[in-house]
Amino acid sequence: MSKLSPAEAEIALKEVSGWILAGDGLSIQKTFKFGDFNEAFGFMTRVALKADKMDHHPEWFNVYNKVEMTLTTHDVGGVSQKDIKLAAFADDAAG
Amino acid sequence: MSKLSPAEAEIALKEVSGWILAGDGLSIQKTFKFGDFNEAFGFMTRVALKADKMDHHPEWFNVYNKVEMTLTTHDVGGVSQKDIKLAAFADDAAG
Protein backbone atom coordinates (compact mmCIF):
# COMPACT_ATOMS: atom_id res chain seq x y z
CA MET A 1 0.00 0.00 0.00
CA SER A 2 1.68 3.21 -1.16
CA LYS A 3 0.79 6.88 -0.85
CA LEU A 4 -0.89 8.41 -3.88
CA SER A 5 0.44 11.76 -5.04
CA PRO A 6 -2.26 14.43 -5.42
CA ALA A 7 -2.20 13.82 -9.20
CA GLU A 8 -2.54 10.03 -8.71
CA ALA A 9 -5.30 10.58 -6.16
CA GLU A 10 -7.25 12.79 -8.58
CA ILE A 11 -7.07 10.03 -11.20
CA ALA A 12 -8.16 7.39 -8.65
CA LEU A 13 -11.08 9.61 -7.61
CA LYS A 14 -12.55 9.20 -11.09
CA GLU A 15 -13.45 5.64 -9.97
CA VAL A 16 -15.78 6.99 -7.27
CA SER A 17 -18.57 9.54 -7.16
CA GLY A 18 -18.55 13.00 -5.54
CA TRP A 19 -15.39 12.57 -3.46
CA ILE A 20 -12.95 15.45 -3.35
CA LEU A 21 -9.30 15.61 -2.39
CA ALA A 22 -8.70 17.79 0.68
CA GLY A 23 -6.75 20.98 0.11
CA ASP A 24 -3.62 19.46 1.68
CA GLY A 25 -3.89 16.37 -0.58
CA LEU A 26 -3.79 14.06 2.43
CA SER A 27 -7.39 12.86 2.62
CA ILE A 28 -10.56 12.49 0.58
CA GLN A 29 -13.96 13.75 1.67
CA LYS A 30 -17.64 13.44 0.84
CA THR A 31 -20.90 14.52 2.44
CA PHE A 32 -23.77 12.05 2.11
CA LYS A 33 -27.41 13.08 2.60
CA PHE A 34 -30.24 10.68 3.31
CA GLY A 35 -33.99 10.83 3.91
CA ASP A 36 -33.71 10.68 7.69
CA PHE A 37 -31.55 9.51 10.60
CA ASN A 38 -32.58 5.88 10.20
CA GLU A 39 -31.26 5.81 6.63
CA ALA A 40 -28.10 7.72 7.56
CA PHE A 41 -27.26 5.39 10.42
CA GLY A 42 -28.11 2.32 8.36
CA PHE A 43 -25.52 3.53 5.85
CA MET A 44 -23.00 4.13 8.62
CA THR A 45 -23.56 0.62 9.93
CA ARG A 46 -22.87 -0.97 6.55
CA VAL A 47 -19.71 1.12 6.15
CA ALA A 48 -18.63 0.36 9.73
CA LEU A 49 -18.80 -3.41 9.18
CA LYS A 50 -16.75 -3.09 5.98
CA ALA A 51 -14.27 -0.68 7.59
CA ASP A 52 -13.68 -2.97 10.55
CA LYS A 53 -13.15 -5.93 8.22
CA MET A 54 -10.63 -3.86 6.19
CA ASP A 55 -9.10 -2.55 9.45
CA HIS A 56 -9.40 0.85 7.77
CA HIS A 57 -11.62 3.28 9.62
CA PRO A 58 -13.25 6.53 8.56
CA GLU A 59 -13.40 9.84 10.35
CA TRP A 60 -17.03 10.83 10.20
CA PHE A 61 -19.54 13.30 11.53
CA ASN A 62 -23.27 12.65 11.61
CA VAL A 63 -26.16 14.93 12.36
CA TYR A 64 -29.66 13.64 11.55
CA ASN A 65 -29.71 12.72 7.83
CA LYS A 66 -26.19 13.96 7.00
CA VAL A 67 -22.87 12.06 7.14
CA GLU A 68 -19.59 13.89 6.47
CA MET A 69 -16.87 11.33 5.80
CA THR A 70 -13.09 11.77 5.62
CA LEU A 71 -10.74 8.98 4.56
CA THR A 72 -6.98 8.91 4.95
CA THR A 73 -4.38 6.17 5.40
CA HIS A 74 -2.31 6.89 8.50
CA ASP A 75 0.28 4.22 7.61
CA VAL A 76 1.29 6.12 4.47
CA GLY A 77 0.54 9.65 5.74
CA GLY A 78 -1.95 10.39 3.00
CA VAL A 79 -4.34 8.85 0.49
CA SER A 80 -3.93 5.22 -0.63
CA GLN A 81 -5.96 2.73 -2.67
CA LYS A 82 -7.52 1.60 0.63
CA ASP A 83 -9.30 4.95 0.81
CA ILE A 84 -10.53 4.62 -2.75
CA LYS A 85 -11.78 1.10 -2.02
CA LEU A 86 -13.70 2.17 1.09
CA ALA A 87 -15.04 5.24 -0.75
CA ALA A 88 -16.37 3.01 -3.53
CA PHE A 89 -18.01 0.76 -0.94
CA ALA A 90 -19.61 3.79 0.74
CA ASP A 91 -20.98 4.99 -2.60
CA ASP A 92 -22.55 1.58 -3.18
CA ALA A 93 -23.91 1.44 0.37
CA ALA A 94 -25.51 4.87 -0.10
CA GLY A 95 -27.34 3.39 -3.10
CA MET B 1 -40.41 19.99 27.06
CA SER B 2 -38.93 23.37 28.05
CA LYS B 3 -35.52 24.94 27.66
CA LEU B 4 -33.22 24.68 30.66
CA SER B 5 -31.41 27.84 31.70
CA PRO B 6 -27.63 27.43 32.03
CA ALA B 7 -28.10 27.21 35.82
CA GLU B 8 -30.83 24.58 35.47
CA ALA B 9 -28.73 22.67 32.94
CA GLU B 10 -25.75 22.61 35.30
CA ILE B 11 -27.97 21.12 38.03
CA ALA B 12 -29.40 18.54 35.61
CA LEU B 13 -25.86 17.60 34.52
CA LYS B 14 -25.22 16.31 38.03
CA GLU B 15 -27.45 13.35 37.06
CA VAL B 16 -24.99 12.29 34.34
CA SER B 17 -21.26 11.71 34.19
CA GLY B 18 -18.62 13.80 32.46
CA TRP B 19 -20.95 15.94 30.33
CA ILE B 20 -20.23 19.63 30.09
CA LEU B 21 -22.39 22.56 29.08
CA ALA B 22 -21.09 24.27 25.94
CA GLY B 23 -19.81 27.82 26.34
CA ASP B 24 -22.99 29.26 24.79
CA GLY B 25 -25.17 27.20 27.16
CA LEU B 26 -27.10 25.74 24.21
CA SER B 27 -25.79 22.16 24.12
CA ILE B 28 -24.07 19.51 26.23
CA GLN B 29 -20.99 17.60 25.15
CA LYS B 30 -18.93 14.58 26.06
CA THR B 31 -16.07 12.64 24.47
CA PHE B 32 -16.21 8.88 24.93
CA LYS B 33 -13.16 6.66 24.47
CA PHE B 34 -13.27 2.93 23.87
CA GLY B 35 -10.82 0.09 23.33
CA ASP B 36 -11.18 0.08 19.56
CA PHE B 37 -13.49 0.95 16.66
CA ASN B 38 -15.66 -2.11 17.19
CA GLU B 39 -16.49 -1.00 20.75
CA ALA B 40 -16.98 2.63 19.70
CA PHE B 41 -19.38 1.74 16.90
CA GLY B 42 -21.20 -0.78 19.09
CA PHE B 43 -21.83 2.09 21.51
CA MET B 44 -23.00 4.33 18.68
CA THR B 45 -25.41 1.65 17.50
CA ARG B 46 -27.02 1.32 20.92
CA VAL B 47 -27.36 5.10 21.20
CA ALA B 48 -28.69 5.37 17.63
CA LEU B 49 -31.51 2.89 18.31
CA LYS B 50 -32.49 4.80 21.45
CA ALA B 51 -32.18 8.18 19.73
CA ASP B 52 -34.40 7.12 16.83
CA LYS B 53 -36.99 5.76 19.27
CA MET B 54 -36.92 9.09 21.17
CA ASP B 55 -36.90 11.00 17.85
CA HIS B 56 -34.03 12.92 19.42
CA HIS B 57 -30.76 12.64 17.53
CA PRO B 58 -27.19 13.43 18.50
CA GLU B 59 -24.54 15.32 16.59
CA TRP B 60 -21.50 13.12 16.78
CA PHE B 61 -18.03 12.65 15.38
CA ASN B 62 -16.20 9.32 15.40
CA VAL B 63 -12.64 8.46 14.62
CA TYR B 64 -11.45 4.95 15.53
CA ASN B 65 -12.08 4.49 19.29
CA LYS B 66 -13.30 8.03 20.02
CA VAL B 67 -16.85 9.43 19.89
CA GLU B 68 -17.46 13.15 20.44
CA MET B 69 -21.14 13.70 21.14
CA THR B 70 -23.16 16.93 21.25
CA LEU B 71 -26.77 17.07 22.37
CA THR B 72 -29.18 19.95 21.93
CA THR B 73 -32.95 20.26 21.51
CA HIS B 74 -33.73 22.21 18.36
CA ASP B 75 -37.41 22.61 19.29
CA VAL B 76 -36.51 24.68 22.36
CA GLY B 77 -33.31 26.25 20.98
CA GLY B 78 -31.11 24.87 23.73
CA VAL B 79 -30.78 22.13 26.34
CA SER B 80 -33.86 20.22 27.58
CA GLN B 81 -34.52 17.16 29.72
CA LYS B 82 -34.49 15.11 26.48
CA ASP B 83 -30.76 15.81 26.23
CA ILE B 84 -30.19 14.75 29.82
CA LYS B 85 -32.18 11.56 29.23
CA LEU B 86 -30.19 10.63 26.12
CA ALA B 87 -26.92 11.56 27.87
CA ALA B 88 -27.80 9.21 30.75
CA PHE B 89 -28.58 6.43 28.27
CA ALA B 90 -25.25 7.01 26.51
CA ASP B 91 -23.40 6.82 29.83
CA ASP B 92 -25.07 3.47 30.55
CA ALA B 93 -24.38 2.21 27.03
CA ALA B 94 -20.70 3.12 27.41
CA GLY B 95 -20.67 0.86 30.49
TrEMBL record, chains A, B:
GO terms for molecular function: 4-alpha-hydroxytetrahydrobiopterin dehydratase activity. CDD domains: PCD_DCoH_subfamily_b. One of its GO terms (biological process) is tetrahydrobiopterin biosynthetic process. It catalyses: (4aS,6R)-4a-hydroxy-L-erythro-5,6,7,8-tetrahydrobiopterin = (6R)-L-erythro-6,7-dihydrobiopterin + H2O. Keywords: Lyase. InterPro entries: PCD_sf, Pterin_deHydtase. This is Putative pterin-4-alpha-carbinolamine dehydratase. It is an enzyme of class 4 (lyase). The keyword Lyase applies. It comes from Thalassospira profundimaris. The keyword Lyase applies. Its EC number is 4.2.1.96. Belongs to the pterin-4-alpha-carbinolamine dehydratase family.
